[in-house]
Amino acid sequence: MTRLYSFYQIRVRFISALFFICSVAILGKMLYIQSFQASNLRQTTLDAGFTERSVKGHRGQISDRNGQVLAETIKTYTFWVNTQNEFDKNAIVSLFSETFNQSADTYQQLLSKRKIYIPLTKALNRSQCLPILDKLKETKGLHCDVSANRHYPLHNLVSQVVGYVDLDQKGQFGIERQFDPILNGKTSNLIFNRSANGRLRKAIVNQHPTVDNGADIQLTIDANIQTILLDALKQGMKRSGALTANGVILNPFTGDILAMASVPDFDPNNYWSHDVSTFLNRTISDSYEPGSTFKLISMTAALESGSFTSEDEFFCENGEYQILPSKIIHDHEPHGNLS
Description:
3-stranded antiparallel sheet; about 350 residues; single chain; 10 helices; alpha+beta
């Protein structure tokens, strides 16, 4: 035994004992985890890898009798920049000015502000912003929010009949309001995979319940006939100087309403820019005297009674009929005898 070994003997034994104690402690902890905590830790790991989220089904479509879509839910894209972080200003300005044919100065001024959130566009359809979506990942500092919004492809054409959906996704006026519970998708809880970076992956397949979309509704309205009626109402209102005009076209054999319109109307895609009075479907919300349209009923009843024939003539008072000393009813056009 060397002199050097004798000098360090106490230190060597202390270090050896320390390593032995640490090894025993580590092995004991591993044994405890494997034997007593395995079940709890396994469940914790599984819970961290999955998460449950509420997912709402899409709102149902509204279409005319020929399948023309009158209201649908589509994805919309809103682009924004956080100018307090690093971003590629020149690339963003060039991309947006070329895509939307706008002056580059417009976007230069927007991006010169120091804000966390600067929207560059309103909610856009995919077809409107496809060039931007293609370059989104490679454009530094450009962000995109995706949301589901109600879209009305025919704009004003059937606005009062269909109504609109507000920012809270609640149906307002027309079909959207009357059948809101049917059109609305149901909310379901789905389980998603969570990746290592915390992002959610696709929902796990074959799980129940599934996402239930709202029901689709098909109207008896014909968009082509609706266009004809709306044009006629606008021309008549302009010619007569009236403030409003309403009209309905029905199939006399089935009673189907082929067209129903009221002007002035509104565009449900940007309903907030219109006066609330244009939201009313005055064809059915207001009361009107039947006027000459009721003549059909009275003539049919007279002929069915057998007291009169189609050859009988009636004196029409030359267009004036006095019901009270102070009240005279005038026909639109004066007539003598008519059959």
